[in-house]
From TrEMBL:
Organism this protein belongs to: Mesorhizobium denitrificans
Cofactors: Co(2+); Zn(2+)
Keywords assigned: Cobalt, Hydrolase, Metal-binding, Zinc
Name this polypeptide is given: Acetylornithine deacetylase/succinyl-diaminopimelate desuccinylase family protein
Ranges of residues in domain Peptidase M20 dimerisation: 196-318
GO molecular function, one term: metal ion binding
Amino acid sequence: MDERLRRAIESRADEMAELTAELIRFPTVNPPGEAYTPCAEYIGNRLLKRGFAVEYIRAEGTPGDTDRYPRTNVIARYEGRAGGPTVHFNSHIDVVEAGDDWTMDPFAGIIRDGRVYGRGACDMKGGLAASIIAAEAFIERYPDFSGAIEISGTADEESGGFGGVAYLAKLGYFSKPRVDHVIIPEPLNKDRVCLGHRGVWWAEIETKGEIAHGSMPFLGDCAVRHMGALIEAFEQELYPALDAKRTQMPVVPPGARRSTMNINAIHGGQTDDFRPGLPSPNVPDRCRLTIDRRFLLEERIDDVKGEVITILERLKRERPKFDYSIADVMEVQPIMTERDAPVVKAVSEAIREIFDREPEYVISPGTYDQKHIARIGNTFDCIAYGPGILDLAHRPDEWVGIHDMVQSAQVMARGLEILLRNKGK
């Protein structure tokens, strides 16, 4: 790596930490989608002063978008002196709720003992800050580079990305000829290249019953008991079958190298909002269950759905009055970028130079916005690479290491050298 570029990033360590802290101080909690616009404008104003052309795109009509909570995205583009490929750094600006058990204000952006603390520090405002510093340092060092660099801050990744990357991908912002290589600075550790993610199928299942007086349940039909029978069948049949499935994908952590299914939510009968009133004595005639099924590259989505539907149909035949409905909520295919893709080779070479060791190639257990870049934008030269420890994401006292951000920014800047000055060779 060019020594002047390396030192330029090291000299910006304090600036990078403060930039991360400033981003954390925008409480971009999703849902409902707070502070998106001021956070996007903060990013845009910084990059505008450094010569980037800046666009703000509101994802009107997407889930959650309202005048109170607009889904505001920012895309900044810096054109080189001559034509060439475009490298795009995409980071989501939304964060999950803070939750309890913090020992500090989760939105204060506290810098202490070589770390930046706060909700979103790790996932993924530290990665966003690192990509900004990397791009700025590269442009300063090589003002005559060919091609273009883009940096985006997008909405709603934590809730599926439909008001962010998915919306922008439909408008062509992640497709050729505009974009060639995409790096998503998710927190997968500074010496790892994340090639993709497992697949996901979310579905809502409803069992049906018949309402009656709670003192005479024999006159009705309890939908909750029907759902209990379904959950028991999952326990006895489906979970053991899923646990036996293994993948050749390098998914981390190792426990995610098999098929999994989580029950996200269940509700039936009496609502929990009657307090301080009294419950009503009814037999519940509806019960709803939301499942989160994560599947492997070796599995077909039709088979994944069929495993659940087969159990439902068997219960319908065997259990008196059992009836159900099932509806898809979200469906995403698993994806894995090839190791010989240009962006993979560039970032891998940078990791070797910065850390003097081979990178680890991994697959994320959960999805992120690469799914939209591939399936909508048809851009497959895409990876996740960024600072931070994935296990800290969404937890109390979330943090990102300043030295880790510096080294990740050096990897990103060296990647830009390879892709824009050496043309990926």
